[in-house]
Amino acid sequence: MQNIIDRFISYVTIDTESDPNSQTTPSTEKQWVLAKKLVEELKAIGMEDVTIDDHSYVMATLPSNVEHDVPTIGFVSHFDTTPDFTGANVKPQIIENYDGGDILLNAEQNIVLSPNYFKDLLQYKGQTLITTNGLTLLGADDKAGITEIVTAMEYLIKNPKIKHGKIRICFTPDEEIGRGADLFDVEKFGAKWAYTMDGSQIGELEYENFNAAGVKITFKGKSVHPGYAKGKMINSMLIANDFINQLPKGETPQETKGYEGFFHVTQLSGSIEETKLELIIRDHDMKKFLKRKELVHKITKKINKDFAKQFGEDIVITEIKDQYYNMKEKVEPVFFIIDLAEKAMKSLNIKPLIKPIRGGTDGCRLSYMGLPCPNIFAGGHNFHGKYEYVPVESMQKAVEVIVKIAELTATTDFSELEKKSKGKKKKEKK
Length: 430
Ligand SMILES: [Zn+2]
Known about the structure:
Layout: H1 2-12, H2 31-45, E1 48-52, E2 58-62, E3 73-78, E4 93-95, E5 103-106, E6 111-113, E7 129-131, H3 140-158, E8 167-172, H4 186-189, E9 193-199, E10 204-206, E11 211-220, H5 236-245, E12 262-270, E13 274-283, H6 286-306, H7 308-311, E14 316-324, H8 328-331, H9 336-347, E15 353-354, H10 362-368, E16 375-377, E17 389-391, H11 392-411, H12 414-429
Parallel strand pairs: 3-8, 3-9, 9-16, 10-15
Antiparallel strand pairs: 1-2, 2-8, 4-7, 5-6, 7-17, 10-16, 11-13, 11-14, 12-13
Subcellular location: Cytoplasm
Catalytic activity: Release of the N-terminal residue from a tripeptide
Keywords: Aminopeptidase, Cytoplasm, Hydrolase, Metal-binding, Metalloprotease, Protease, Zinc
């Protein structure tokens, strides 16, 4: 456990905040510091083919130690932290044998991490927690994932009796600003499938995420002196308002959960002459996703028709761009990779928590780039803020899951499993 704690702290005390306004990759120079440290560390523990490319993607290989053919698998994490909350000067606190009560993160500002509000804390009574000092995020998202992958590789190198095939690992920059997969060289990585170690609480296993689109709408108007405006003025802000009102009620992020999709207005700014509206569309179900996009076009058309005479040209201009898709479609044909992860967890007495992601992951992008890539827990809670914490025991379990998946991959007959996966798919179609 001490090994995990020391390693984790050595990563989170390096600031790697990414920046959505930067055009470079990595988006911030400081991400190089951790990337280069990881290269040295991977070499030091005995990994092979340790590489870092021009965009700071770190890759390495653990060669197979068996004679027979085993599919190459991969593990992936990201080393940047979110720009939503500061990641500079992280001062982790270690709470041993957590007693189930309030944790005072910062006495000066009276910042308390309390199980009254964060009920998940109670399941970690008696465990060792790593928290912030109340002033920064922790960076367990996703330096817990990196810690786990490095520790698991080190364990496999030190314990050659555990048999495994070839394992590839990759650490990426800029996941938090949605660009972690952009320059990921899937071919160079060369794995048949991979897992991102980037989920939250122990047991999480995720292979379904949203289908996602972004919508940009411009409403035009006509400004006329309000005293003489009757029949002449067109107020673009009111048209935008009318548009929003035609979206289905109750289908917003704050009113939905589970598999329920939504429309989410993210930006609205305007004047009489011109109003700009941005929204995002999310749905796990492809048919419903397409319907949502259709509805936006329908409302656009209707308003354009209503104003056709008065305005002379289209008064609403709508642009919809798909952002990412549900990885389920790419994971289902190889569903044994989920079975494998589930089996690994169960054999370690971890209850698999399979639930749909209400967002996207780098794994979903990678899945569409040819690398099926579900997501496994890394152990942390309350990501992207000062209440972030991670139980060391959960990180230890994640290490064991990685080792177990490696082991199971070397002993599983995949031809049988592949048949089963295909059978499952056929059944579902019926
Ligand atoms: Zn993450």
